[in-house]
Structures are given as structure tokens and as C-alpha cells.
Amino acid sequence: MRTQQVLIIGSVWVAPNSSAAGSRMLQLIEFFLKNHCKITFATTAQKNRNVVDLNSLGVDEVSIELNSSSFNIFIKNLQPTIVVFDRFMTEEQFGWRVAEHCPKALRILDTEDLHFLRKVRHEQLKRGEVFADKALLTSDNTKREIASILRCDVSLIISIYEMNLLQNIFKVDQNILFYLPFLLDKIDEHHTKKWKLFEERSDFVFIGNFFHKPNVDAVITLKRKVWSGIRNQLPNVKLYIYGAYINQQIQELHNEKEGFIVKGFAEDAKKVIGSAKVVLAPIRFGAGIKGKLTDAMLCGTPSVTTKIGAEGMSKEDLWNGFVEDDFTIFSNLAGQLYQNKSVWNNAQLNGVTMINANYDKENLSKLFIDKIITIQQHLEAHRTHNFLGSLLQYHTLQASKFMSKWIEEKNKNIRLQ
Predict the structure, then answer these.
(1) End-to-end Cα, the chain, rounded Å
(2) DSSP H or E segment with residue 70
(3) What SS3 class is residue 48?
(4) Whether residue 91 is found in the same domain as residue 223
(5) What integer is the mean pLDDT of 179-194?
(6) Which domain, by its residues, includes 137?
(7) What confidence score (pLDDT) does residue 133 get?
(8) What is the pLDDT of residues 248-305, one digit of tens each?
(9) Are residues 52 and 13 in the same domain?
(10) Distance (Å, whole) CA 21 – CA 18
(11) Considering Cα of 97, then 101, then 104, then 106, what sign does the dihedral take?
(12) Which of 12, 36, 120, 358 sits CB 3.0–4.6 Å from 45 for a disulfide?
């Protein structure tokens, strides 16, 4: 791939130790760096102590403002050949400015996961309803995110399930979608030799970012519906809860007598997972693919999760443990996995197979490079073919431009007062 100037507009600064989204973004940055791209990472967000120093990787960091013409000057001067939007909200905020001031730049949307899928599932869960695709069709969030996908030249879809959903339910043209899950190194003998053996491990673990509502719900579910069933089988085991941004609701679940231990942020998530015998993830709603579960496979740690937890993560009918939605059975299977060395070892091998078959960084990167080059070489024809996207881009440009300029003028008047 020829040298490219890549602008990534992030929704937040990159914090791979805090969330799967942070790990995903770092993988994309490493992909572009490996292909000799010059990268600028820009965001409106504030930094916290968990973020990566992108400057140390050779990436320029820039703070940008919402509803400000300063971004127009910035992007005109930068003249990127590729612009990556981190989730659809950043495309809504800055996409029209990119289209207006840098029209020849390839516009890529990294969806991370389909936000409308996660939100609709959450709403249906709260109402006690069984999830149905029909509910997606009436959601305003669905319309916003699908519109963003249509406006971009290509959208990166992380889950096999979500690729099928977009093409079959929403009839999105496959030419503007690209399946790109996590970009991971293959697991070889060099990795597996470092793993702790069955006999060297103990206890259960859950890990997740607690800004993410499915993780909050999963820990509450562990406490209320899963853990007592496991403790009845294994009265001396412990469950350790790790994750960034733990709130009071989660902290109050801590109970030493019950072996339910809330620990907080893990400086080294892989070490925590690699010392546990089993990862538990009773995820009741969500979307995308789950970083905690790929991390479990990378650490040789079997897991028990739900159908939504395992959704879209494998082309094979495999799991590195068990997939179960009935939480009584879930608890029993967790106990079986914890105690049975043969079952545990077989689950670990399944995890190796899944990572190597579905997340091979080298293979996926080659396919992604080919997709970028192909679209760039035929960008005008690609956009002409995507007529609905061009139509939405035209109307969004007019509406968003007017609204943003109105907000900018309003902010100016407030500062002058």
C-alpha cells in the first residue's frame, strides 16, 4: 500500500487496558503503522491515566472541538487520504466536514459493534420481551447508525452475526461493508508453553469496563443468578471481579464470606485471566464480539458465556468451554469445567482453534489492504454505485452544516456575554 496520510477521529483517547474498544483501536493504529502510513489521531475527549501515549508510537495527537470551523482549517491543512471514524457518532459530528473539505479522502467507519443492536436488546430486556429483529426496524438509533454506514465508503464490521444482519435485514450493499474482527497473533507452541496448567490455576474471574452497561448487568447476574449455584458445588472457590470504572453499585456486591471479590482495575488483564481457571460472562444483552472472551482464549483460559456472549465470534460450531442461557445450567456447567481436567483441556484447545481460524492478523490485514486499494482506485464509481449513501451525504451535509454553524454562532455569543 502506498504511503497514506490517515486521520483517525476517535470518540475517546485510546485505552486498551480499559476496554475492548481501546484494544481494537490500537490494533487499527498498528495496522496502519505497519503499512507505512502517517497517522494523526484527533478527538474531542479528555485524557485519563489509562490512555496510551500515541506520540511514543509515532502517531500525532490532536485535540479538536465540536461545532467549530477550526476543524475545517485543520483538515484542509492535513489533507488526509484516509479518514477513520471511531463509531458512528463521530461520523455524524465530523463526516460532513470531511466530505466538504476533503472530498477525495476515503471515509471508513469503524462500527466497533452495532450500537443500535445493543441498545434495542437492552430496552427489550428491561421490558421483559424476547429479542426480535422487528424491534430494530422501528428504532431511531438504528436509523442513525445505518445512515452513517451508508454515508461512508466502507464500514468495518466486527461480528459475523452483524454482517449477516446488515445484509439480510437491512439490505446494505456488501460492497460498503467489510468484515474485520480483532486482529490477533496466532497462538503457537511458543504461547502455549507459557500458559499455566490446569493444576496451577484457581478460582473464577470476570473482567470488563463498567462504563459498558452489559458488563454491569453481567456482574449483577453473576451475583443474583449464578454464583450461589457454583458455590454449592465448590464452597471454597472465589470469583474475582476486575474492570475499569467500577461504580458503587458493583462495589457494593463485594462479599468476602461468599467469595465474591470486587477488585477494580487490572493493571495486567492477561495476567489476571491467565491465572484463573475459568472466565464467567453471563452477558444478557450486547453486540459485537467480546474482548474478555478472546482474551480468555489467548490466555488458555476456558469460559462459560451466553448465546449473546458467543454471538458472531466463530465460523465453526466451537467454544472454549460452554454456551448456555439457563443460569442454573450455566452454574452447573461452570462447576463441571472447573473440576474436570479433560473437559477443561479440550475447551482450551477449542480456543486455540478459534483464534487461529478467525482472528489471524496477517491474513485479515492483507484482505483489508486489498479492500482499501480497490476502493481508492475506483472511488468515484464506488460512490456512484452507492446512490443511497450519496443521497444521504447530500442531505446530511446541508442539515448538519446549518445546525453546526448555528451552534457555533450561539457559542460565540455566549462567550462574548
Answers:
(1) 51
(2) helix 70-78
(3) coil
(4) no
(5) 95
(6) 5-184+361-416
(7) 85
(8) 999 999 999 999 999 999 989 999 999 999 999 999 999 999 999 999 999 999 999 9
(9) yes
(10) 8
(11) negative
(12) 12
82's enclosing H/E stretch is strand 82-86
Q: Which amino acid is at 368?
A: F
Reading the block at residue 114, the C-alpha cell is 452495532
In this prediction, residue 402 carries a pLDDT of 63
Mean pLDDT in residue range 34-48: 95
Same domain, 148 and 228: no
Q: Among 11-15, 131-135, 410-414, which stretch is predicted with the lowest mean pLDDT?
A: 410-414
Quick one: which of 109, 43, 105 has its CA closest to 71? Answer: 43
User: Do 313 and 358 meet the contact criterion of CB atoms below 8 Å apart?
Assistant: yes
Distance, CA of 247 to CA of 409 (rounded, Å)? 38
Q: What is the CATH number of the domain that holds 36?
A: 3.40.50.2000
Q: pTM for the whole thing?
A: 0.91
Cα gap 261→303, rounded to integer Å: 18
**How far apart, in whole angstroms, are the C-alpha atoms of residue 303 and residue 318?**
12
| Across 27-46, average pLDDT | 96
Write out the three cell numbers for 389.
Answer: 449513501
163 and 245 belong to one structural domain: no
Q: Do 269 and 171 fall within a single domain?
A: no
204, 210, 212, 218: CA torsion to nearest 10: 40
> What is the spatial distance between Cα 329 and Cα 153, in angstroms, rounded to a whole number?
45
Burial of 141 (0-12, 13-18, 19+ CB in 10 A): middle
Instruction: Indicate the helix (H) or strand (E) that contains 391.
Output: helix 387-416
Locate 180 and state its grid cell. 474485520
Which residues, 6+ apart, have CB-to-CB distance to 186 below 8 Å?
355, 356, 360, 361, 362
Our count of domains for the chain comes to 2
Overall average pLDDT of the 99-103 stretch: 94
In 3D space, the residue among 139, 101, 133, 134 whose CA is nearest the CA of residue 119 turns out to be 139
Q: Record the cell numbers describing residue 319, joined without a space.
A: 467454544
Give the pLDDT confidence score for residue 401 in this predicted structure.
63
Q: Which helix (H) or strand (E) holds 166?
A: helix 160-168
Q: Which three cell numbers stand for residue 360?
A: 489471524
Question: If you average pLDDT over residues 345-351, what whole number do you get?
Answer: 97
pLDDT over 80 at 394, yes or no: no
Q: Are 352 and 187 in contact (CB under 8 A)?
A: yes
**Does 404 lie in the same domain as 368?**
yes
- Look at residues 375, 7, 4, 32 and name the one whose alpha carbon lies nearest to residue 174: 375
